[in-house]
Each structure stands twice: as C-alpha cells, then as structure tokens.
UniProtKB/TrEMBL annotation:
<dbReference type="InterPro" id="IPR045108">
    <property type="entry name" value="TXNDC17-like"/>
</dbReference>
<dbReference type="InterPro" id="IPR036052">
    <property type="entry name" value="TrpB-like_PALP_sf"/>
</dbReference>
<comment type="similarity">
    <text>Belongs to the thioredoxin family.</text>
</comment>
<dbReference type="Pfam" id="PF06110">
    <property type="entry name" value="TXD17-like_Trx"/>
</dbReference>
<feature type="domain" description="Thioredoxin">
    <location>
        <begin position="124"/>
        <end position="193"/>
    </location>
</feature>
<dbReference type="InterPro" id="IPR036249">
    <property type="entry name" value="Thioredoxin-like_sf"/>
</dbReference>
<dbReference type="InterPro" id="IPR010357">
    <property type="entry name" value="TXNDC17_dom"/>
</dbReference>
<protein>
    <submittedName>
        <fullName>Cysteine synthase B (CSase B) (O-acetylserine (Thiol)-lyase B) (OAS-TL B) (O-acetylserine sulfhydrylase B)</fullName>
    </submittedName>
</protein>
Length: 226
C-alpha cells in the first residue's frame, strides 16, 4: 500500500505455507477489498528453492479457501457471451490524491445514477486511519447505514511529510472546507453519481477517538445524508 500509494490492484504471490498470501490477503480485505489476490504454484517437478507444489490433499491450517464443487453444465459456458456473468461495477474504490478528479469522474460513470457517493480521505501510515478504515469499510460493505452507498477512498500522500507539506493541493481546496482539508481521516458526502454536490458535506473529528466513537459518528453522518 505504501509503495504504490494505495494504487495497487492485484497482489500475486507464490504459495508455500501460504503465510504471505493469507497475511496480505487479510490486510487488503480490510483496507482495500477490491485488490485481487492471486496465488501461484510451480509446475510439477520444478526446482525453485523455497517453493514447492503441494499435493491437492494438503491444506495448510492457515489457508482460508472457499470453493464450489460443480459439473460442466453448472459452469454456464454457453451463456458467457450474454453478459449474465459480467461483474457489477465496483461500488468501492481507492485512488491517489493526484488522480482524484479523473478517478472521481470515471467512478461516477460506473455507478447507478441515484447511488450516493462518499469519499474517505486516508493514508496507510496514519494510526487514526488504521483505526477508522476497517470500520468504515464494514459499514459500507455490510447491511448497515452505508449498505447502498458507494465509497471512494483517497490516499492523501505516500508519506506524512507529503501530506504535511503546505503546498499540498488539498490545503487550499475549498471543496473540503473553508480552509481546505486539514485532517485525516475525513469522510465527505459528494451527492449522487448523477447529481454531485457543489459543496460536499464533510465529517471531520475522527482523529484520536476510539472505535465505538468512530462507528457512532460515521453511522450518524450517513443517516443525516438520507
């Protein structure tokens, strides 16, 4: 997350004991669920130091696997061209602050016109964001107040120094407040995909509070937005 400034889309790892694959997978499921995790095994007889092809019967105790046993007729191969298996547009996405306006424009086009859109300003190096992000993700992906809303997560900087730089464009961007964006994490309501708000509604004050306070403030904010 730090090396790509939050722009990572896929994580590919060889599979031995699956420690790396599972650890990274669990992290990404919390901070950026749309990252696709790909596990690789070498071909039979490959001589790659530290990596081996495990027999199908072997399942490491930490490996969390889910599958469906089905025959060929259950696969739907004859229906692939109809679009019935096309994935829905992502309701939740992440971007780097320098690409915000372009990402926001493209993201709106992919959403239903009446879907409310929210933005969370965050950073992987920020302790308060580490507390807030999993809670916000849970609220937006569960059955609660944010279940029918879209969330765009904006990484404000690769490092604390980049974010604290007075020349950071968000410092003077009055969309996020009279004095620009001054703290993270901050949640903003941007209106709907087809009717964006000229002046987004902003929820700040998520710094230095515990998890229950974060949950209460975020859920209350979402209910206020209708």
């Amino acid at each position: 997350m730090r090396q790509t400034a939050g722009q990572i889309t896929h994580f590919v790892s060889s599979m031995g004991t699956t420690g790396t694959s599972m650890g990274c997978s669990r992290y990404f499921k919390e901070v950026k669920p749309e990252v696709e995790i790909v596990g690789l095994q070498p071909a039979e007889g490959a001589q790659i130091p530290g990596i081996r092809r495990w027999p199908k019967e072997y399942l490491p105790s930490i490996f969390d696997e889910e599958g469906i046993f089905a025959g060929m007729s259950s696969g739907g191969d004859r229906y692939l061209s109809t679009g019935v298996f096309d994935p829905p547009p992502p309701a939740h996405h992440s971007c780097y602050y320098k690409n915000l306006d372009l990402t926001l424009s493209q993201h709106r086009k992919a959403l239903p016109e009446d879907m409310p859109l929210f933005m969370l300003f965050t950073a992987p190096w920020c302790p308060d964001c580490t507390t807030t992000l999993p809670i916000v993700n849970e609220i937006f992906t569960g059955q609660g107040a944010g279940a029918n809303f879209s969330l765009l997560r904006c990484i404000v900087g690769k490092t604390r120094e980049e974010w604290k730089d007075p020349r950071h464009p968000f410092r003077s961007d009055t969309r996020w407040g009279p004095n620009g964006l001054s703290e993270i994490p901050t949640l903003a309501c941007l209106g709907t995909a087809s009717s964006p708000l000229v002046q987004p509604r902003v929820l700040s004050g998520l710094e230095k509070i515990d998890r229950e306070q974060v949950r209460f403030k975020v859920e209350s904010f979402l209910k206020e937005q209708g």
